[in-house]
């Protein structure tokens, strides 16, 4: 089993799983969780989704004593332009082995919850990806671009339709992640639960063409039963595209054969 680099425990507002329980499903591999940071989060009535950092690190340290250093720390940073300064302030005195960039919301609504009848698909896609570009152009340091298509997980769109509305933004996003050496997350929840394998195939082809080489695998598990969800299928999917390695974010950053 490969290293799952998108995982939540009860340090995230939307998970009830004890961090320690992941040891039972990781098959003796290392574990990293990526807990939510989303300031003014619309889905919890604009409260902040944040991490009790000291408690989190304390828990990781104590688990590392018990399980010989198998646990690593991570954060899923939900970027909005309005929260950029708060994110920078939050991160400046903290260390995480893995920092994901996610676009979940815009300060008004979560992109998965918006009423698509009130906004055209064209305007929606433009807003979503322009926000992603803004995040990538900011001075916040991210390791990985997570679920690049979160906003369209529940929208039925063909690759051709997606290409015509999104490609100019996606080209810019790829240029930025290649330049900044930010890895591209293959999100198995998006690919197999939300059936977006075709969009991943499209995006990965573009990314490889522009010289992109850095991939991670993430299940976006919020409980142990979803840990490394369909990683075998994702592995085959990547090998078919001649992607043979993923990048691991632990104490050291390194490439590993899949
Ligand atoms: Zn997310
Ligand atoms: Zn997540």
From TrEMBL:
Coiled coil: none annotated. The keyword Hydrolase applies. Keywords: Amino-acid biosynthesis, Histidine biosynthesis, Hydrolase. Pathway: Amino-acid biosynthesis; L-histidine biosynthesis; L-histidine from 5-phospho-alpha-D-ribose 1-diphosphate: step 8/9. The keyword Hydrolase applies. It catalyses: L-histidinol phosphate + H2O = L-histidinol + phosphate. GO terms for molecular function: histidinol-phosphatase activity. Pfam families: PHP. InterPro entries: Histidinol_P_phosphatase_HisJ (IPR010140), PHP_dom (IPR004013), Pol/histidinol_Pase-like (IPR016195). GO terms for biological process: L-histidine biosynthetic process. Its EC number is 3.1.3.15. GO terms for cellular component: cytoplasm. Residues 4-188 form the PHP domain. NCBIfam families: hisJ_fam, PRK07329.1. Belongs to the PHP hydrolase family. HisK subfamily. This is Histidinol-phosphatase. It comes from Fusobacterium pseudoperiodonticum.
């Amino acid at each position: 089993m490969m290293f799952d680099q998108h995982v939540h425990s009860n340090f995230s507002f939307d998970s009830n799983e004890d961090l320690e329980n992941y040891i039972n499903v990781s098959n003796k591999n290392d574990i990293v969780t990526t807990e939510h940071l989303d300031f003014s989060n619309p889905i919890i009535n604009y409260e902040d989704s944040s991490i009790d950092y000291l408690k989190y690190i304390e828990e990781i340290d104590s688990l590392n004593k018990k399980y010989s250093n198998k646990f690593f720390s991570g954060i899923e940073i939900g970027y909005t332009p309005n929260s950029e300064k708060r994110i920078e302030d939050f991160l400046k005195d903290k260390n995480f082995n893995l920092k994901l960039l996610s676009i979940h919301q815009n300060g008004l609504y979560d992109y998965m919850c918006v009423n698509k009848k009130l906004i055209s698909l064209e305007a929606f896609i433009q807003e979503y990806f322009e926000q992603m570009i803004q995040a990538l152009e900011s001075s916040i340091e991210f390791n990985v671009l997570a679920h690049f298509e979160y906003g369209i997980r529940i929208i039925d769109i063909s690759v051709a339709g997606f290409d015509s509305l999104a490609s100019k933004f996606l080209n810019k996003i790829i240029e930025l992640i290649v330049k900044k050496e930010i890895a591209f997350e293959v999100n198995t929840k998006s690919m197999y639960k939300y059936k977006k394998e075709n969009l991943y195939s499209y995006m990965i082809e573009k990314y490889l063409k522009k010289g992109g080489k850095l991939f991670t695998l993430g299940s976006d598990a919020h409980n142990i039963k979803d840990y490394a969800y369909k990683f075998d299928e994702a592995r085959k999917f990547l090998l078919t595209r001649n992607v043979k390695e993923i990048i691991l974010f632990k104490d050291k950053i390194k490439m590993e054969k899949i």
